[in-house]
Amino acid sequence: MGIVFMVKQYDIILPTWNGAKYLCEQLDSIACQTLLPSIIWIADDGSSDQTLDILSRWKSNSDLSIKVLPRLPQRLGSCKSFERLMFESSSPYIMLADQDDIWDATKAERLIHKMLSLELQYGMHKPLLVHTDLRLIDAVGHPLSSSFFKYQKINPHLDHWLEIALQNIVTGCACLINRECISQALPFPSEVVLHDWWLALVAARQGAIGFLPEASVSYRQHGNNLVGASGLHLHLLWRLFQLFDQKSMDSWIGPCLRQLYAIQRRFPVHDPVIDLAFENLFSRSPFLRLLASLRLGLTKHGFLRTSGFYLALLFWSPSTTNFK
User: Fold this and answer.
1) How far apart are CA 178 and CA 166, in angstroms?
2) Closest CA to 214 of 111, 99, 96
3) How far, in Å, CA of 292 to CA of 315, rounded?
4) pLDDT by residue (tens digit) across 15-65?
5) Do the beta carbons of residue 197 and residue 167 sit within 8 Å?
């Protein structure tokens, strides 16, 4: 991996919120990286536990450069906190960290090696994102699954921007992004569902996504997870119940379609057929919505997920302001 040492700088961005229970373990795993970051940027989002005390003690005892942003009067939430931190860093590469995971010691080195290989293929001026698989652990660190993608029945190689329109394949804590991807992703439009999903869409639309099949992080599953990993069949069963409630249905398929429209708005395809399809995604006519989705080739991972989406699309009642 000698090519890795051509890289002089990467930053880590880490939002925190009431993360005292697991934060030390995550910070220690960052400090053990075989390739250390230049700066760790941290923004606390109004913690009421011992998170700030832990950060203060860890900063005092660490040789790493750690910059903690001033607390804001109101909470931003996870997505906006990551956006805020991205604006602060000027590094050519950024790694995203959650407060409750555990990184493998070689995580940064492997991801940067993959990034440099991708840059040799596509050039340094393309938005690029690389990511890995994750192993799943429970709240106390016991193994749940050796592969997030196998557990979720997701194919990480389906990475065209329209292939990830309905279902994200990138988990932020297992990815690295280059400066061009950051520049083109910022500022986040209001339609962004998840920060890592938006970054993946930008990279897929304007550049490329690279994948390493081995896990580089232990992804902790617990009651406070914002997203986490859930069993497929239970998830689909819950979605079927949502077909009977318009508000729930809109929260299911509306956000991903509005986010997709935001990508098309920022990076237009300039194809009249595609433009019409995007407009018809939000048509009052179920038939036009169906044709538009088929025209764009929108699918999820697996027959059941995709069938569920198209079934919901037929019953959905989008408002005229859904994509504006």
Assistant:
1) 24
2) 111
3) 15
4) 999 999 999 999 999 999 999 999 999 999 999 999 999 999 999 999 999
5) no
What is the model's pTM? 0.91
Distance CA 277, CA 294 (A): 9
For the chain, the average pLDDT equals: 90
Higher pLDDT: 209 or 304? It is 209
- Distance of alpha carbon 185 from alpha carbon 149, whole angstroms: 25
Q: CA 22, CA 227: separation in Å to the nearest integer?
A: 17
For 299, phi then psi, to 5°, come to -145, 165
pLDDT digits (tens, 9 = 90+) for 257-296: 999 999 999 999 989 999 999 999 999 999 999 999 999 9
Structure tokens at 265: 């708005």
Q: Is the pLDDT of residue 321 over 50?
A: no
Length of the chain, please?
324
What is the CA angle 158-13-127, rounded to 5?
Answer: 40
Tell me the H-state helices in 23-147.
23-31, 51-61, 78-88, 107-122
The four Cα atoms 177, 179, 180, 184 give a dihedral, to 10 degrees, of 80
d(CA 264, CA 189): 12
C-alpha to C-alpha distance for 287 and 210, rounded to whole angstroms: 36
Which residues, including other chains, have CB under 8 Å from residue 121's CB and lie 6 or more apart?
A: 208
